Amino acid sequence: MAGTTGDGPGTAGDRPGATPAQSLSALRGYRVYARRWVFLLVLSLLSCSNATLWLSFAPVADTVAKRFSLSIKQINWLTLVYLVVSIPFGVAAIWVLDSVGLRVATVLGAWLNFLGSVFRALPCMDLSFRTPFAFLMAGQSLCALAQTLVVFSPAKLAAVWFPEHQRATANMIATMSNPLGILLANVLSPALVQEEDDIPLMLGVYVIPAGVACLLATACLWENVPPTPPSAAAASSTSVKFLDGLKLLMRNKAYIILALCFGASIGIFSSFTALLEQILCVKGYYNDFAGLCGALFIMCGFLGALGLGLYVDRTKNFTEATKIGFCLTSLACVAFAVVSQLPGQTIWLAVVCSLFGLFGLSIAPITMELAVECSFPVGEGIATGLVFVLGQIEGMLIMVVLTALTVHRAEPSFSTCQHGEAPLDWTASVLLMASLCAVCSCVFVIFFHTPYRRVQLEASASPSIQEDYVQGDTNPEPASATTP
């Protein structure tokens, strides 16, 4: 691929006044394309929409349960199904991403996401449905299938479309679009649902971004990879076959440590966002405040990821940034476990949730880049996908254990839970969550060490061209072009 020409004007090496680095890069066949930003926009919108669909029920779990005459456990399964579906289908999604291509995975994910959003809304269109839970679960399951094709893609997109000085930032934007969707769900669901009759409005609103993402993915994405790679590492992307890559990862000690520790963190974050409303309502906090805490968690995480992504793009200090983030995350998780069990601590709860997001979510895209660095030249889809599959497995187990540890108690006077069941005691659950977070942080900090294999390869190659093309260029063949 590195020796082929692109479909646009000439490279930097063809232009008078091109810098020596650009000329050398052109001779080696590396170039970037402006349409990479379109791909990033579409994937980000799709990821955001998918996340809103995942968590749309959790902030208003009690009201949804009353509307459809369901139990809280059934409502929890509408969230948990994302984790369950991703386990058997996650490996298949990884294969699609690395073997069939990024465009196919994105378009297929967009259609599954849209159809799932429509299925969820069907029980509200016809009140004669006797089993609304079946339609809600079917829609969530389709969206869960879409998630496996969407959340594995950011590192792949960054690797094959973006130059090395923009990879961490591109990965951050696409990765953090998912928690941004969780943020919107935490804010929109309580705002839209004030009573049972508002549930149809909420389900209809969430169909709109899913439809827009589906339309853009189908109409605007035409290539799996650019005609010419943007970097030396992109030219080697997926050079290792799928099964060979799996074998290499299973023998990679650093990768296994990262996958297990960060996978547990994904599980903890998933449990936190899905169960936050139920944990807080027992202590007298209303749905609106639980939604605010979830919003602060995501918002601060997004801001932290933006700053950390720009920093790591310049310094390449992946390991240092991740280890420090892990330690601070465990401290914030312990603080949440304590404060969340105290009534009337709105300010401190808001601060703790903000810090939890700032430290925990901000390292997610950097950890994905680190997974690629320690496993290169294994394909980016396999390297990051397996981390998420492990995260979903651990997340499912963590959620099951956390809910199993709860016990019914006499309803306290300050409870605001509205689902008609006796309030639950979450003390043991949140303490276990904090303990798991602390253990994973210690294991990662002590035992994780790795060289940056992709950075080392690129250090011996030329830098990427930083800009796309110059207006007015004709279409000459670059000096490195070869005829197939």
Automatic annotation (TrEMBL):
Keywords: Membrane, Transmembrane, Transmembrane helix. It holds the Pfam family MFS_1. InterPro entries: FLVCR1-2_SLC49-like (IPR049680), MFS (IPR011701), MFS_dom (IPR020846), MFS_trans_sf (IPR036259). It comes from Trichechus manatus latirostris. It is a multi-pass membrane protein. The chain crosses the membrane at residues 37-57, 77-97, 104-122, 134-152, 173-193, 199-222, 255-277, 289-312, 324-342, 348-372, 384-406, 426-448. The gene is SLC49A3. This is Solute carrier family 49 member A3. It is found in: Membrane. One of its GO terms (molecular function) is transmembrane transporter activity. Residues 36-453 form the Major facilitator superfamily (MFS) profile domain. The keyword Transmembrane helix applies. One of its GO terms (cellular component) is membrane.
